[in-house]
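hey all, quick one before standup. I had two proteins in the batch that finished overnight and I want to keep them in one place so we stop losing track of which output belongs to which input. First protein below, input sequence then structure tokens straight from the run.
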Amino acid sequence: METWSRTITSADGTPLACQWRGEGPPVVLVSGALSTGAGEAPLAGLLAPYFRTYTYDRRGRGGSGDAGRYAVEREIADLAAVVAEAGEGAGVFGMSSGGALALEAAAAGVPIPRLALYEPPYRADPADREAYAERTARLERLVADGRFGDALALFLADTPPAELAGLRASPLWSSLEAVAHTLPHDHAVLGDGLVPAERLAAVSGRVLVVDGGASPSWLRETARAVARAVPRGRHGTLTGQTHAVAPHVLAPVLRGFLSATD
């Protein structure tokens, strides 16, 4: 299926590389940490027969710029610009920390009538706040010092050692290092790391929060907590899936939710 591309401009003048494919109701896909819009292309392709599906490079990644000092408010404005480009009534899907960004945008008043999320990586347990703050501070220091490989290793510290060693030895490692400077951005979107229940109460649209049945228990607990925190939320689980969800398993769920009229 043909893909069209154009550069749109955010409120602060930052150029954002945007792609779209398909015809039908508009849907915007928001990538998570270490990913560009290309990372959502397989899912976008599966949704394109039913929706006009938009992907974009978040600021500082891929073909997008990164004007000025980073602020979550600027990323919210970026998403608002893409939603406006997509057109009235656009639904949004956010992957991982991209889901947290989409939630922040919806809470700030960006018009998102239907918002689907996959495993936004907040923590539901207040006891995790201190450890999250320490990890965030270490990550920021490493990035500030230009130690992007070390920052990447810290971010992936929960990956099994053998899997991490294999990743380090693969060609993919260098492409991940190329966007590792944006890792503090994702941490900033997550705030103190806990589910921001008070802000989420301002989300007016319908929200579907999905997790994987084989994902770590804390991610599944968080998904349920987010679904409870939004006024019109519901929760679902994809049996056998992990945080690296298979697009062909996720796509039918998104199709059903984003095309519903209730």
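OK second protein, same deal, sequence then tokens:
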Amino acid sequence: MSDDKPALPALVPASDSLSNLRHYTAARVALGRAGNALPTAAHLKFTLDHARARDAVWSAVDGGRLRTALEARGFRVATVHSLAEDRATYVRRPDLGRRIAPEAAAALADALGPCRLVVVVADGLSAAAVEANVLPTLDALAPRLAADGNAVDAVVVVEQGRVAVGDPIGAVLKADLAIVLIGERPGLTSADSLGCYLTFRPREGLADSARNCVSNIRPDGLAPADAAYKIAWLAREALRREISGIDLKEESAAELTAAKRAETKVVGTD
């Protein structure tokens, strides 16, 4: 009987050609292996990212601090709660996160009155996304909207809100356009991704096809300033053409590229 100990799994690094892919993506590529498993460093990073994703879903937005920051920027702000009374209910009952109570709707109408353009900020499935990206996005977006004659009339902060909660809010405020900024479902490389949904003449019962979406708003994804350009373009065209969703194709890319070139152009001398 041999006294030799079994050999430890060999650490096999990824080839240099595959490792270069990491410069272009945050996806888990070219991790190498230890035996038939991940290397320890890759496994620990996966565990950390998984924990961050779970925390993003179950953490709460500091609504008071957010409201103070919004009011400091000159916005009229109101806060409402969806019909999902707590986080556990919110996760299990998406339908309740899309609705607000009749008394909340009445209070909202009294507080803000009719609004042509309302921004709805909802925690969604990532408090981290709201905390990190809502204010930078609005800071870039509000001036662009105002320049097009589409100033933000009010901001409604929704606790335990889903995307479609913008419909009853927009309806009670008689809004021509609702812009919903919401924390997106976190991924293992993006726990702080913000989404934006625009709906022309929002009302309860609309299908998701009636909305336009701008997603992955975060510094390592679609930068807030670039997202603001796309959102303002969609808002302008939705109000001008009186449509949104699948009837409105987002065509701001050429304008955005031209604007960036104009901003960075170096004027030479003859």
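Flagging for whoever picks this up: The mean pLDDT is 89. Residues 62-249 form a domain with the Rossmann fold fold (CATH 3.40.50.11240).
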